[in-house]
Amino acid sequence: MFVSMNRVRQLFAVLVIALACSGLAQAQKWVKLAPFPDASEELYGISSGGKLYVFGGLAPGWTPKGLVFEYDPATDKWAKKKNMPLLSHHVALAERNGKIYIVGGFVKPASGPSAWQPIDNLWEYDTANDSWKALAPMPTKRGSPNAAIVNGKLYVIGGAGLSPGAKETALHPARPQRVLGTNEVYDIATDKWETKSPMPTTRNHAAI
What is the value of pTM for the model shown? Predict the structure, then answer.
């Protein structure tokens, strides 16, 4: 059977790629590192300057811990940092130039039954100085949104919040919630927010 040289080259290229991918797959493996110092659920991590920063934590009764830890992969060690100024959970994180932005989330109501009260807070955490700074709050209170920084602006999209005119001040995970497509943008240079076109499909707990 006649096979053209182009066809042979194509088959050879596919074989080389397949073997390379197979070798990479075999080379990858899991390595156990230093355990997190405070066993918790609802932790949120982000990298900055070659280190991992972990925020949050949720104790029984939906009580936020406000933990902040730094992990150095070069030494395989954890270091405790200053706690979050407002103990909250289901926050969104984004990083730029050594500054980590923590936005939205839920807090435990000051009174009444345990629940999830949405907040509009925006905080800047300086990894170099281990310091916190309060920034202009979001226009919309919400938890479990997504956040990303593009061209010096922080985009906060989606989340869960209260329905307009609702008598309740907090959400309960086992009850119906208002899922949002809200898209609000924060300008880091001016400390100001503006509202953009919402997501076509409302979402919370999404990934970007």
Answer: 0.86
CA 14 → CA 8, 25, 55, 67, distances in Å?
A: 10, 16, 44, 49
Place of tokens 């103990």: 87
Q: What phi, psi does 45 have (nearest 5°)?
A: -120, 150
Domain range list for the chain: 37-196
- Map residue 26 onto helix, strand or coil: helix
Distances in whole angstroms, Cα of residue 102 to Cα of each of 43, 90, 147:
13, 10, 9
Cα–Cα dist 61/112, whole Å: 12
CATH superfamily to which 37-196 belongs: Kelch-type beta propeller (2.120.10.80)
Q: What is the DSSP letter of 89?
A: B
86, 87, 91, 94: CA torsion to nearest 10: 60
**Tens-place pLDDT, residues 38-75:** 999 999 999 999 999 999 999 999 999 999 999 999 99
pLDDT tens for each residue of 31-43: 999 999 999 999 9
- Predicted pLDDT at 184: 99
Residue ranges in 64-144 assigned as alpha helix (H)? none
Identify which has the larger pLDDT, 135 or 20: 135
The pLDDT tens digits of the residues spanning 101-152 come to 999 999 999 988 899 999 999 999 999 999 999 999 999 999 999 999 999 9
